[in-house]
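Figure 2 data, in text form.
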Amino acid sequence: MGSQTMGIAYANKQPVTILVPFCKKAVDYSTTENLLRSCKGIPVGKVIFSHLQEGESLLDYFYRLKEVIDDNHVNVVLALFDVATLVQSALSREFPNQLEGPSVESSFLAYHKVYTSQCLDPDSESSAHGVLDLDSPTLPEDAATLLKRVELPAFAKVPCGDASQGVWKISSASQLTDVLEKMGRINEGHFSQNEHISNATFMRDFILKVLDVDHYPMVLRNTIIVEPYIDAPAKVNVDGCVYNKEIIHWAISDSLHWPGHDIPFQGSYMPSALPDAVQRRLWGGFDKVVGRMVDHGFNNQFVHVEYFILADGQIKLIEVNGRISGNLSGLYAACLSGPLPLQVLLGLCCGVRPVPPVPTGRAALNLPLQVRGGYTGKVGDMVNKSELEILKKDPDVKITMVMYFDEVFLPGKIEFAKVWTYGATPDDAKKKCREVMQHVVPCGDASQGVWKISSASQLTDVLEEIGRINEGHYSQNEHISNATFMRDFILKVLDVDHYPMVLRNTVIVEPYIDAPAKVNVDGCVYNKEIIHWAISDSLHWPGHDIPFQGSYMPSALQDAVQRRLWGGFDKVVGRMVDHGFNNQFVHVEYFILADGQIKLIEVNGRISGNLSGLYAACLSGPLPLQVLLGLCCGVRPVPPVPTGRAALNLPLLVRGDYTAKVGDMVNKSELEILKKDPDVKITMVMYFDEEFLPGKTVFAKVWTYGSTPDDAKKKCMEVVQRVVKKPEHLMFNFP
């Protein structure tokens, strides 16, 4: 049915039957159906939401959809998902007088990233990219050869994936090997097991039927793309559509940036904060890319294009999707006037030219909720269902679950919900999103024995976790002492009448402090005399609930601040001396607030093993361990003086949900090589064959040295890249 015929049909108010393929079983599509039925000027009869069956090949599904079209006299096929664009195009070719849609080739070029780069990107540099055939018997040799040409770090991408899944940052040959093994496992499964990555086995017979594979031979192989890593400060989405070969601009939105992650962009917001001049350049690039698609037969469909914006202002194409963006549609509903993209898409399939929207002045944010790849629990374990019900009544919130509560997370199947929030400004929408996350998602990352809680349900989860830890022996985590382990000893050595809570398993709840800095103040007591030793600064990891881990010297704090810290230290340790503290080191930690206030965090009546490795380089004289021996033998220590060197310490710990063995995380050969580097010290604190457990996540400690703190940090980044085989599972890692 051509555009003119469709226009006459709607003038006569003839209802259309709509088929939506590749729907997700866990999603309630009643809202989608209501939007379609409310499309002005296009009466809708039946709406058929079709699901891929478990184990069904793409070709078998295509044949089943043909029967649905014949049996139900379908007039419109709507492609809302990437793989669905191929099916819609093929069905449009099978029913040329009944369905509107792009050519198969144009949809394929957008879907398959190898050929997107080769055929649609006007600025592509093919020499900088490489493709590995995962089915090749010489894959290890091929990978080694490729890494001689493509500089590390690099991106590794599956050619047919979506939702930012199937994309990795690789910084070493061993990391690439791990990615290839992971892809091998994913490719052994069916598309229905992840719904985001299409492998060649699933697609092959269908592709052979609908596409001239002589022009695109790699489509029949399981492949992975390796290309230069781009450390861009910004990523944007540029959306438009094509009507009768005319390119129509729709909107630009900005991606949310999450520094410190290998793939640091997820979610989007509107309106865009980009200057008008940059937006004009983006539209110019969009027109070139979509123009090439039109040359290959693309028509009457939306296009979603993603770009990096580099620090020097360059614009780099990331990917092209020949469909509407479901995530962005929720933004457009608030930020743009007129019909929603879903309704516009229905119009395109019915020969109706869309009118470009104008801004409403509202702001919106979208964030897909995904667990980390190593998490293997059920969706219901992540979600507070009662809060979900309450938030349904909030007009500034929309949440769509995309997995069932009783489904288990799998490699490649980690996205369980999508969140949209609205407000007068992007900051309002962002604040609302934070509030939603605090209510809906019970638990986040945590240091050992320390959690940030934002709701009653999160506190309940923490209490349950502490209960599980307390059931175990101290040797199972070596960081948390429970009352059962300590009770008999405490009864023997302490007057428990003064401290009754020591005999109970307890947890402390206190106000959360969002401090920009944390410091360590160390000293000792000799015959009741307080002696100052050193101040060091903690490494700050924004975005974590407990955002400080590791330390460096010399401190960057101003002398006036350091004097105030020593004053606070003297008061705290003075009270300890009043209670009999003597001939021992003291390690005190403080927050420094944004307004300059100093807040005590904790006191440890011992040397700090982590900091001792810093003092060895940065301070003159004997090490704290030797000084401690002297204190125990009646020798007064001489306070040290700076050497002028810098040092950094970083404990290596995995995220709490990672359950493999230590040996799976560590490159042992690199450990041996680094033993010879005088600017590196690494101490393993778990055996290679030990398994990570809740509360037992620190497996090594790293110290690095240099002329300046920046030198030491650069060295530490190099060490982590070489030693850690799976950096994505680290709790704290440099970007």
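Caption note: Residues 1-9, 442-447 have pLDDT under 50 and may be disordered.
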